């Protein structure tokens, strides 16, 4: 199996994991008094990013050209950074540190985003190094 296929499968699985973290694995807060907490909106964006990363991973697997696979890997890495930024800077999670979104959802998304970014960058760097030789 080629490195692109392995990387693509890993990125696709991490994308699926990203979508599942706030909805199934570490569920965010339910609506309180008919109002949604910040973690709800973080969850919505993370599901969309997870699906985008999943699709990019599948595109890497299906790519016949190494350059295209590398471009999809870079796009995945950018999305991985966004996965980290959404719960930490852009939207955030609930204000109370006692909420499950602080102890479960946020750290899990940070780890998933870091793994996505690392896998994407490793694939792209590997392509650039092989192209120089």
Outline of the structure:
This protein is an all-alpha fold.
Features:
single chain, 133 residues, mainly alpha, elongated
Would you kindly provide a written description of the structure presented here, covering whatever features stand out?
The structure is a single chain. The chain is mainly α and about 130 residues long. The chain has one domain (about 5-125). It is about 80% helix and about 0% strand.
Q: Assign the structural class, choosing from mainly alpha, mainly beta, alpha/beta, alpha+beta, or little secondary structure.
A: mainly alpha
Overall pLDDT, averaged? 93
User: Oligomeric state of the chains?
Assistant: single chain
- Broad shape: elongated
Order of SSEs: HHHH
Set down the secondary structure blueprint.
Elements lengths: L2 H23 L12 H25 L3 H25 L9 H33 L1
